[in-house]
């Protein structure tokens, strides 16, 4: 196996076994460290997975209309997806550490495609409860994403380019979610919005087949074990990062969950224009992740990543405050959301890079699950609260809440920079 020099499985360095569970024997799977092709394959998988999951955010307006529900129930719809995602994170992280990332990624992507089709048929039943259950299954399938893809990136990243590689992988999140918003809202202009869901499911299955033959992955321990949370809990820097993730997730999920509705309700734009605003946020989020990763590599290590993330969160605080105090102009709204893409939405790559740098390689699956659980926990609570504030006080109150949450995240990131 070590003689294979074609495709993304070529590593150029078969002797490095750090964090992969490889014993170095001739029959074990080689490390993929130093392979930009492997980085690209993982980033492509992340794009396909996010394309599936973020249909939920693109479809908020259509779901509200199909089920005749309030803004707060739209928030509960998003929360159901996050709940399924969150509950399954630690089992997914344990599976990644035990069996390696490739089988988990393949199973996760196929499950996402199936769940997406199930969600698309729930309006025909008229059951909001069934919708929530289907969305929870979609979220559970997406739980494989961060633990598996982060492990793959750590193994594949060329020396000195870990932050950039992680940023490129995280571009898959914004690229997938941005494409999802364009596909779902674009198709809805001339056909049923569910057609967009079906098209995305086909794309996911197609990429799963390509990934199965083009990506080798790294070995796990061979044992399915619960994560050792006690060891991670004693790492004060890691704990502070996880706490920051709680508030980052609350802010990002509130922003993404209500972008479409805000543009429709306050700006008065069409659903397709609202989809363009959301997609523009995702595009600049991609740019922000690449730029932040490159800058963090120049600054060096976990400290560089934390510093860049802190600057991005500080900028986002100002932007959310601007939304809280103004509204109605399409140009201003587009400009603010584009800038939010560069700042808070572009910060997750360096966040994960910093997180993976402060733990041992063998704990990356569990550590990522912990960080993502915190991010999701914020997303579970904040969107329904945002929706409730909108119903009772308007969107200004909702954005004011997000401003406060982002300030809290920035304070915790400052604590992290002082400890590194």
From TrEMBL:
NADP listed as a keyword: no
Keywords: Membrane, Transmembrane, Transmembrane helix
Stretches assigned to the Major facilitator superfamily (MFS) profile domain: 38-420
GO MF entries: transmembrane transporter activity
TM region positions: 38-60, 72-92, 104-122, 128-150, 171-191, 197-217, 238-261, 267-287, 299-324, 330-352, 392-416
Biased amino acid composition, Low complexity: 1-20
Annotated InterPro entries: MFS (IPR011701), MFS-Transporter (IPR052952), MFS_dom (IPR020846), MFS_trans_sf (IPR036259)
Pfam families: MFS_1
Disordered: annotated segments: 1-34
Family annotation (PANTHER family): BLL3282 PROTEIN (PTHR23527:SF1)
Name of the protein in its database record: MFS permease
Source species taxonomy: Archaea, Methanobacteriati, Methanobacteriota, Stenosarchaea group, Halobacteria
């Amino acid at each position: 196996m070590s003689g294979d020099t074609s495709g993304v499985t070529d590593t150029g360095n078969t002797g490095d076994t750090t964090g992969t569970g490889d014993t170095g024997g001739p029959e074990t799977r080689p490390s993929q460290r130093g392979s930009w092709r492997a980085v690209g394959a993982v980033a492509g998988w992340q794009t396909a997975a996010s394309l599936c999951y973020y249909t939920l955010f693109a479809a908020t307006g259509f779901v509200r209309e199909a089920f005749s529900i309030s803004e707060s129930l739209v928030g509960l719809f998003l929360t159901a997806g996050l709940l399924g995602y969150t509950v399954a994170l630690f089992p997914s992280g344990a599976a990644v550490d035990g069996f390696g990332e490739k089988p988990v990624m393949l199973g996760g992507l196929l499950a996402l495609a199936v769940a997406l089709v199930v969600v698309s048929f729930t309006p025909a039943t008229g059951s909001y409860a069934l919708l929530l259950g289907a969305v929870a299954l979609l979220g559970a399938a997406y739980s494989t994403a961060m633990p598996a893809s982060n492990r793959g990136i750590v193994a594949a990243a060329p020396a000195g380019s870990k932050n950039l590689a992680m940023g490129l992988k995280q571009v898959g999140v914004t690229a997938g979610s941005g494409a999802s918003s364009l596909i779902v809202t674009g198709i809805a202009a001339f056909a049923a919005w569910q057609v967009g869901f079906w098209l995305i499911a086909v794309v996911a299955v197609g990429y799963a087949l390509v990934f199965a033959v083009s990506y080798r992955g790294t070995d796990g321990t061979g044992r399915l074990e619960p994560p050792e949370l006690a060891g991670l809990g004693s790492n004060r820097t890691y704990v502070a990062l996880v706490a920051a993730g709680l508030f980052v997730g609350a802010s990002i999920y509130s922003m993404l969950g209500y972008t479409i509705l805000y543009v429709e309700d306050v700006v008065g734009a069409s659903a397709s224009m609202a989809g363009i605003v959301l997609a523009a946020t995702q595009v600049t989020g991609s740019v922000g992740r690449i730029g932040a990763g490159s800058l963090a590599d120049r600054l060096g290590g976990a400290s560089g990543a934390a510093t860049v993330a802190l600057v991005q969160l500080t900028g986002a605080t100002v932007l959310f405050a601007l939304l809280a105090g103004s509204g109605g102009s399409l140009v201003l709204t587009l400009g603010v959301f584009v800038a939010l893409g560069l700042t808070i939405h572009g910060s997750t790559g360096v966040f994960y890079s910093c997180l993976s740098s402060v733990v041992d390689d063998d704990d990356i699956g569990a550590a990522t699950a912990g960080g993502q659980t915190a991010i999701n926990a914020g997303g579970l609570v904040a969107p329904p609260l945002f929706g409730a504030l909108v119903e009772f006080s308007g969107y200004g109150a909702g954005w004011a809440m997000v401003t406060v949450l982002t300030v809290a995240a920035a304070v915790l990131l400052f604590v992290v920079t002082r400890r590194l």
